[in-house]
Amino acid sequence: MPQAVRNEEHNARIVLGLLESVERDGAQSQRKLASDLGIALGLVNAYLKRCVKKGLLKIGQAPPRRYAYYLTPHGFAEKSRLTVEYLSSSFSFFRRAREDCSSVLKVAHARGWNRVALIGVSDLAEIATICALEQGIAIVAVVDAKSENTRFVGTPVVKSLAAVLEGIDALVVTDLQATRESVQSAVNQLDADRVLVPALLGIRPNRGTESAA
């Protein structure tokens, strides 16, 4: 999936989450919104301003010295549109991701690679975990330096690939945010043919290069 498309989908999900949060409680603080959405406080402010400018939100006064946000009719319509779009794209993503994860894990199983790590906490990692169970493959760990969680879908989360290299047969890339960097990091530490990348990510692992599929 091209980076521009990923960015657009990411922005749409933030806007949807913001509109849903405002609908539930428009008087909550921007800090609370940032926490709920998992984004930086400054980014929440920028998105709120953008939504107001587009006519999705209007601003009211909420004591003490705070603002309350309310969805406009246009905001309600946009929230409904984004919800339908997200559900539709989520189903398409799940179907494609399941096919691609099953494909790379079948390759691993055929080669006798039964201990695998994932790189990148994401929706794709969750789908890969499900597919691994179907293939009888053990997911040893999920590598993600940015994740604050210690476990993901019951699997340990570690900060570096070096921590699990000796205990795995192969690696499946599931990073949706910095895919190219994760692939390159993996092939620099593991044989390129042991780095498996689902086709939907659009990248082939090549030693010393970064080429798109």
Which helices and strands, and how do they pair?
Blueprint: H1 3-24, H2 30-37, H3 41-53, E1 57-62, E2 66-71, H4 73-110, E3 115-119, H5 123-135, E4 138-143, E5 151-152, E6 155-158, E7 170-173, H6 179-189, E8 195-196, E9 203-206, E10 209-212
The share of residues in helices is: 40-55%
Distance between the termini: 10 Å
Shape: elongated
**Strand percent estimate:** 15-25%
Q: Please summarize the sheet with the most strands.
A: 6 strands, mixed
- Please give the count of helices: 6
- In what order do the strands lie side by side in the largest sheet? 5-6-4-3-7-8
| Average pLDDT metric | 87
How many E-type strands? 10
Low-confidence stretches: 208-213
Summarize the structure.
The chain has 213 residues and is α/β, with parallel strands linked by helices. The protein is built from six helices and ten strands.
